[in-house]
Amino acid sequence: MYRVVNLCVAIVGPRELEKIAVAAVFHDLGIWTNGTFDYIAPSIALAHEHLTAHAREAWAGEIEEMIAEHHKITPTADPGSLVEAFRRADWIDVTRGLRAFGVPRPFIARLFATWPSAGFHWRLVTLALDRFRRHPLTPLPMVRL
User: What span, in angstroms and rounded, lies between the C-alpha atoms of 140 and 125?
Assistant: First the structure.
């Protein structure tokens, strides 16, 4: 979460830090709260509940889109949007900087040194393998074209 926030801020600046933070907290949360690798819808529902509880309903559409599109392979329709910046930040994180989208590699390396994966990336690999064994036709349901 901290890496994604910092990467997104590196891409767009701190203009929407609170929105970025909310999206980052909830974007993968459905994995753990719902025990599923098909976690986009549960993560969006949790974010929506949070935004409603904190009188931030006006943000719901954009934050829900940030969560829905964060594993999209192709760019979003608006290359300058917060949704696209968040998508890029998450791809930088999940690929451990192999996809950098212009973010300096020393900055990425410092983020991983400051906030190490602590087994998160390996856990994603094991979840993906388990999902593939049980659902070979939809092994990565969160990935979008």
Answer: 11
Q: How many domains does the chain have?
A: 1
The answer to whether position 49 is within a domain reads: yes
CA atoms within 13 A on the CB side of 11: 27
**Residue 45 to residues 51, 70, 71, Cα–Cα distance (Å):** 10, 15, 17
In 3D, which of 89, 123, 75 has the Cα closest to residue 11?
89
Pull the structure tokens for residue 37: 């690798």
Taking only the tens of pLDDT, the chain with its 145 residues reads: 899 999 999 999 998 999 999 999 999 999 889 888 788 999 999 999 999 999 999 999 999 999 999 999 999 989 999 999 999 999 999 999 999 999 999 999 999 999 998 877 787 788 888 888 989 888 877 787 7
Structural domain harbouring 49 = 2-134
22 occurs within a structural domain: yes
Cα separation, 34 vs 112, whole angstroms: 27
Judge whether 142 lies within some domain: no
Q: Is residue 139 part of a domain?
A: no
